[in-house]
Design brief:
alpha/beta, 6-stranded parallel β-sheet, 8 helices, globular
């Protein structure tokens, strides 16, 4: 008689592979490569939950993946919505643990700001961000260097919709269409006028021959 094989257990270990850090990580990025008609739409999130499902519906209808930059504190309080964004195929960036002024922080405080955001975002969505959008666009060279040492590219914007001021949708549309160019990084937030403007913006971008990609896809060109 053959002895029954002993039971074996398999332990699955998740390994996080950090991106290679290059000189590009140590400079703030305001625009992607300009060789192709491609742009990236970025959504900074620290509020606006009520408009996010509608924006996701619009992106899904147009087959567009954006890059969402939530804060860690928002991700912690809106875990299900953060997970929904990730599961819809969008890229998740890092907007810091909270809306702090990075340019006024020490190196260690800046590192905590970024790491806290990463930890909460990773826990909620399963995505480890590799692009960092400083809260309020506030940064200095130290901010960029600390982010680089943590494996991040610091991303600003080419076109700012200034939609947090909640102008009319037509104003948001004009700001995007009037300033868009190859490699543009377009910044927006989850607001009612942004939701209303988004289908028109995506129609115009498509008619102008632009392809919308994630920030990482754009920068990888």
């Amino acid at each position: 008689l053959l002895a029954a094989p002993a039971e074996t257990s398999v332990e699955l270990v998740t390994v996080l592979v950090l991106p290679s850090i290059t000189s590009a990580h140590f400079e703030p990025i305001y625009r992607g490569p300009t060789s192709e008609p491609r742009v990236a739409l970025m959504v900074n999130v620290d509020w606006g939950d009520e408009y996010i499902p509608g924006m996701l519906d619009v992106f899904r209808h147009y087959g567009v993946s954006a890059t969402w930059f939530p804060t860690g504190r928002w991700t912690q309080t809106s875990r299900d919505l953060a997970r929904t964004i990730s599961q819809a195929g969008h890229e998740i960036g890092n907007h810091g643990g909270r809306h702090g002024e990075a340019s006024k922080m020490s190196r260690s405080a800046t590192a905590r700001l970024i790491q806290e955001g990463e930890d909460l975002i990773l826990e909620a969505t399963g995505q480890r961000p590799t692009v960092f959008a400083p809260p309020s666009g506030d940064f200095n060279q130290q901010t960029v260097s600390v982010a680089a040492e943590l494996g991040y590219k610091t991303v600003l914007w080419t076109v700012d919709t200034v939609d947090w001021q909640r102008p009319a949708p037509t104003v948001i549309i004009d700001r995007v269409i009037g300033k868009v160019k190859n490699g543009a990084l377009v910044l927006m937030h989850p607001t009612k006028p942004t939701l209303e403007a988004l289908p028109v913006i995506l129609d115009h971008l498509a008619n102008m021959g632009y392809q919308c990609v994630t920030v990482t896809e754009l920068l990888a060109d």
